[in-house]
Structure formats: C-alpha cells, structure tokens
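Per reviewer request, we include the raw input and output of the structure prediction for the construct analysed in the revised manuscript.
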Amino acid sequence: MVKYSKQRDAILEYLHSTVSHPTADTVYENVRERIPNISLGTVYRNLNMLADAGEILRLSCGGTSDRYDGCTEPHYHFLCRKCGKVSDLDMAGLEHINVIAGAKFDGMIEGHVTYFFGCCPECMGAGGE
C-alpha cells in the first residue's frame, strides 16, 4: 500500500471515476480542478508510484502516451488505431494462455498483457474501415 497523500488520493479518485483510460496529461487537467497548484511532475511521479504498487494499471499502447486504468482486476483492452481511444472489452478471461505459454518454457509465467486493436464503433460509423 502506498502512503497517503492528498495529491495521490485525488489521482486515484479520478482514475476510479472514469473508464476512459486517460493519459497523464488528462489526469493532470482533471485533478488540477480539485488541486489547482498540483504540478504535472507530481502527477507523473504519483502515477508511476501507484502503478508500481499495483494500485492502478499502466497501459503502454505502443507509439502513444501511456494510459492509466483505475481497475486492476484482470481484463482486456481494445485500442482504436484511428482515434487512439482505449476501451475495456467485456469478455471471458484468457488465463489458460499462461498454461499454453508455459508448456515449453522453463521459467515461471505469472501473467500476461493482451491488447486487441482495430477500429472502434465510433470510427466505423464515421466512415472507418
């Protein structure tokens, strides 16, 4: 558990209130409404600390900025290649993939990260692929 701070609590509260998977800049803009004197550096440090402690998820989505998720339960994400939106997928878990991956691997598989990508419904409706 990470030590309490007003800034960290505000960041965590914001992440628990949204399903938008915001960037650090978006977290900063939203938390700044509550704590006007918070710095972007403080937001980055606290996001990293919370992610390292397992209290939030850091989503590294390739060439774009990292995104953050307040839901730490195992779940999967969809990344739209057109608009960059990241959303949760409502689907059964793929935990059996750890067994498959470990079948011919001498190490220990502890988990996996899987991203699905393509074109989101909004982009499809706007003349997407």
